[in-house]
Amino acid sequence: MGDYIGDSTRAEIRYARSLGKPVRFTHPAVDPDPVSLPLVPYKLVIPGFERAVTLPAIEPAPGLFVYELPLEHREGDSVANPWRLGHHSGKALAAFPSEDDALRAAREVANLADWTRPADDLRADADFDLERYFLRMEVRTNGLFILGTREGTR
Q1: For labelling alongside 39, which of 59, 70, 85, 149 has CA 20 to 30 A away?
Q2: What pLDDT is attached to residue 153?
Q3: Contact 55, 42 (CB under 8 A)
Q4: 27 near 73, Cβ under 8 Å?
Q5: Mutual angle of helices 99-109 and 130-140, in 10-degree steps
Q6: pLDDT tens for residues 99-147?
Q7: Domain boundaries, given as residue ranges, for the chain
Q8: What percent of the chain has pLDDT over 90?
Q9: How far is C-alpha 72 from the geometric centre of its chain's CA atoms?
Q10: What is the pLDDT of residue 148?
């Protein structure tokens, strides 16, 4: 009920779609099928590199992007957690083991802020509940926080 879709229901949705059956949602924003979301170009800012890297991404909520970190930029925790939830500024917010995990996290935090705003504006906004953001990410997702220019664990 509401905006939660568990793994079993997610599998049923994919199975129904594989049979060509129509699937409708009372809350369309929770559609777990990333195939239904178009790929868009995303400029990823990687600390230590002069140029941003443009790669395909999914925008599950305005201003939030899900993408897979390119192989040549994976090291440490990035190897097991190559999927990212990123801000439209090109900065990564969190790392995940799967695309589904990253999409689920985007849906968890989508309503916490206007993610289309510049990153510096969000940081300076006294009304942005950073504690609530961290709590949702930590309790409801399977991700690792990316803090500043270095990756951090939750």
Answers
A1: 149
A2: 34
A3: yes
A4: no
A5: 150
A6: 888 988 998 899 889 999 998 898 888 888 888 888 888 888 878 888 6
A7: 1-36, 37-151
A8: 16
A9: 20
A10: 56
Token code pair at residue 96: 């995940």
Residues near 4 by beta carbon (within 8 Å), at least 6 away in sequence: 30
3-state secondary structure the chain: CCCCCCHHHHHHHHHHHHCCCCCCCCCHHHCCCHHHCCEEEEEECCCCCCCCEEEEEEEEECCEEEEECCHHHCCCHHHHCCEEEEECCCCEEEEECCHHHHHHHHHHHHHHCCCCCCHHHHHHCCCCCHHHHHHHHHHHCCCEEEECCEECCC
Q: How far apart are CA 7 and CA 76, in angstroms?
A: 28
